[in-house]
Amino acid sequence: MASDTAAPTPRPPLERLRQGARWGLNHALPKWVIARAARAGDLHARLVVASRTSSDVPLDLFEQIRVAGPLHRSTYSFVTASHPTVREVLANPDMRAGVDFGSASGPLGRLGRWSAATAPIGPLTPPSLLVTEPPDHTRMRKLVTRVFTVKAVQGLRERTEQIADELLDSLAARARADGSSTDPVDLVPAYCALLPVTVIAEILGVPEVDRDKVLEFGSGAAPSLDLGLSWPEFRSVEDALSRFEGWLTAHLELKRRVPGDDLLSKLVAARDDDGVALTDSELRATAGLVLAAGFETTVNLLSNGIALLHDNPDQLALLRREPGRWPAAVEEVLRLDPPVLLTGRTAVRDTEVSGVRVPRGGVVTALLAGANRDPDVFADPGTFDVSRSNANEHLSFSGGRHFCLGAALARMEGEVGLRRLFDRYPDLRLQPGARRRDTRILRGFETLPATLS
User: Fold this and answer.
1) Could you count the other beta carbons within 10 Å of the beta carbon of residue 104?
2) In a domain? residue 98
3) Residue 451: which H helix or E strand, with range?
4) Cross-referenced InterPro entries, in alphabetical order (predicted)?
5) What stretches of 117-274 show up as alpha helix (H) in DSSP?
């Protein structure tokens, strides 16, 4: 999962101005405001700064925010680490997903709308499902939901098991070729990334020759969710998004000419109840999001799960004695070390959350990872316990109308991927050199070296 380090594509002067404005509005200006607030002691600002300067989750700040109240008002927004309040925010019809300067009034709003006109389609750029609201969200989501139902995903289990076994066979063959099974292998690129990208690529009809490209695009675009990117980081991310959009446009055109029995072919041909198809931009945004989200977060789930199970051998021993607990173990991994740490909402009208008034335009940060450790919901929340009866009450898949449509697929891949790995290599040992990803909203491992026996 190495970062996309290709040199950014040169842009015309006017587009460079637009790109600079996008960076200034969405990264440079917020970063300056947040740093100033953090120096003044603001809890939310301190949380953002801490997440940028360390790969460790700032659990102490989660707790301070929770103690400050169910919905804490910071200098520039609201923030919550309370499980019931996060759930309320995610379900609130008066809240829309994301934060968008283009919807503001005055000079900043005009500048935001002007600069966004040529932005590459990304996970937080309309018409992405992550930031689209009803009725468009309902219409677009309905067209992709069928393939991700629990029943449909269970039909993919056998193929997922086959893919996992093939990847584990390749690890064994590599060890034999090297002449030793004690040489470390990096589990992230060799297993955690390849399992979900192979599964989602088959679902979407992406040929095997293009899967390395998809991994590269996903890795390069992953920081697009983060706040406060430097100018070089921002340019690199937008370049990755632009190249991904170019590849995806060509791939979708191929599906128009030569359709197959895959989700992208079905999306190209899909019509809603009124006979209306997705627009070109909706099709690219939806297909891109399903493809990227179909493996990026699952890479994190697998790597986080491997680390937790390795570091808690008593829990791994319990799973070996009682393999029926594997689904619950995946829920506990999702609860304790979620692949996505937080999400944001903006009030579209004056509303109330947990008794606190949130004015129109007010931004609320919902700390999913904080809610997952709420001691009023989860006993001894910092302990990894695969026998926890209510682990599935975590909010790692968000909630409300933006609940992750790939949740069933991620759960199945997590169970298959983790169980198959530890069954094949019961003496697996992680080695020094593990490193977390640089992303601040997506949480997982960049490298995870391990010896297999």
Assistant:
1) 16
2) yes
3) strand 449-451
4) Cyt_P450, Cyt_P450_B, Cyt_P450_CS, Cyt_P450_sf
5) 136-145, 150-154, 157-178, 187, 194-204, 211-221, 231-257, 263-269
**CA of 31: how far to CAs of 47, 220, 228, 246, in Å?**
12, 21, 5, 30
How many domains, in total, are found in the chain?
1
DSSP string, 347-398: ESS-EEETTEEE-TT-EEEE-HHHHTT-TTTSSSTTS--TT-TTGGG--TT-
In eight-state DSSP terms, residue 340 is B
Cis-peptide into 135, omega within 30 deg: yes
Give the mean pLDDT of the chain: 91
Tokens representing 258? Answer: 């030569």
In a domain, 5, yes or no: no
CA dihedral 407, 410, 411, 412 (to 10 degrees): 120
Angle at 89 between CA 84 and CA 90, to 5 degrees: 100
How far is residue 325 CA from its own chain's centroid?
25
Q: Which of 98, 57, 100, 101 is nearest to 81 (CA)?
A: 57
Query: Which residue do the tokens 């193929």 mark?
Result: 159
Between the alpha carbon of residue 322 and those of residues 65, 318, 328, 332, 369, the distances in Å are 38, 6, 11, 16, 28
Provide the domain limits for residue 325: 13-451
Residues near 222 by beta carbon (within 8 Å), at least 6 away in sequence: 296, 437, 439, 442
Q: What is the pLDDT of residues 308-331, one digit of tens each?
A: 999 999 999 999 999 999 999 999
Q: At what angle do helices 13-23 and 231-257 cross, to 10 degrees?
A: 110
Do the Cβ atoms of 171 and 452 come closer than 8 Å?
yes
Q: Which two tokens stand for residue 452?
A: 């297999």
Please check whether residue 355 lies inside any domain of the structure.
yes
Strand partners, 351: 358
Domain containing 187 — which CATH number? Answer: 1.10.630.10
Torsion of CA 143, 139, 280, 298, to 10 degrees: -50
Residues in a beta bridge with 366: 80, 343
Q: Summarize pLDDT for 235-254 with one digit per residue, the tens.
A: 999 999 999 999 999 999 99
The DSSP secondary-structure symbol of 442 reads B
Residues 6+ away with beta carbon under 8 Å from 30: 227, 228
